[in-house]
Specification:
Elements lengths: L3 E2 H7 L5 H9 L3 E3 L2 E2 L6 E2 L6 E3 L2 E2 L8 E6 L22 H4 L3 E2 L8 E7 L2 H7 L8 E8 L4 H9 L1 E3 L2 E3 L3 E7 L3 E8 L6 H8 L4 E9 L2 E2 L8 E3 L2 H10 L13
Parallel strand pairs: 9-15
Antiparallel strand pairs: 1-4, 2-3, 2-5, 5-6, 7-9, 7-17, 8-9, 10-14, 10-15, 11-12, 13-14, 15-16
Helix pairs in contact: 1-2
């Protein structure tokens, strides 16, 4: 297992939120291999290191939870947001919601697949640019999108934070007013698809994520959730080159 940020690992184990875990570290309440750790950020290897908080050895939960939810529009992809009516973790069963974190973000005005889990190492790799996890979207756009626009999307569009490109783009259907476009990204920047189309002169009117890596939204209705199957969890681990010996799957 690669080294992980200590405060993130403590949060994944349910000790405290990331911010509270940082405060614990700075207060000298956390020891790694018997030595107090006073700086943030710092790293740990949970397999090799002995990690204590207030003298209590911290171990990961015996099981891990993996859930797919269909985030509706208006729901934020956060654990907690005092300004939001509903957060994506609120879609999970109440007895599990406190353990779960979303894998990446899906903006408030978009809908579709979000994976929730308490598996810190998996979250880390699925959201790290190094692993190029594909995200697939079905996008409704005002106007008629042609082959030249799809070529521009895959060739690269210059945004204010640098060039952005789609891995694949294709028109699924259109009429005289709107087009439906399938677009696949290998990165996940803030409101990237909306900004790419805007730069090309199009307005996005609907956006639904239908796939993340090997996990598909399928027929899951908006606002609903389901457990990932063991096969799906295994595919996620393979997609990010994690050892299946690190896998903790919820009971079936």
């Amino acid at each position: 297992m690669e080294k992980l940020l200590l405060h993130k690992w403590l949060a994944a184990c349910g000790v405290a939120s990331r911010r509270a875990a940082e405060q614990m570290i700075r207060a000298g309440r956390v020891r790694v291999n018997g030595q107090p750790v006073l700086r943030v950020p710092c790293f740990c290897d949970p397999r090799a290191d002995s990690i204590e908080v207030d003298g209590r050895i911290i171990r990961p939960p015996e099981t891990r939870i993996y859930i797919a939810v269909h985030k509706p529009r208006g729901c934020t992809s956060t654990v907690r947001d005092p300004h939001a009516e509903r957060c994506v973790v609120d879609l999970a069963p109440p007895h599990l919601a406190g353990r779960l974190k979303p894998v990446g973000r899906l903006d408030k005005d978009s809908e579709g697949l979000v994976v929730l889990t308490d598996d810190g190492p998996l979250i880390h790799r699925l959201t790290h640019p190094r692993y190029h996890i594909e995200k697939e979207y079905v996008v409704g756009v005002e106007g008629r999108v042609g082959a030249d626009t799809c070529k521009a999307l895959t060739g690269g569009v210059l945004l204010d934070d640098g060039p952005a490109r789609a891995l694949r783009a294709a028109v699924l259907g259109q009429d005289h007013r709107r087009s439906v476009v399938r677009i696949v990204l290998g990165e996940g920047r803030k409101r990237q698809i909306r900004r790419m189309f805007e730069a090309l002169g199009f307005k996005v009117v609907s956006l639904r994520r239908v796939r993340m890596g090997p996990i598909r939204l399928g027929r899951l209705a908006a606002g609903n959730w389901r457990h990932l199957t063991k096969a799906e969890v295994r595919m996620l681990y393979r997609a990010v080159s994690l050892d299946e010996g690190d896998r903790f799957v919820q009971p079936s």
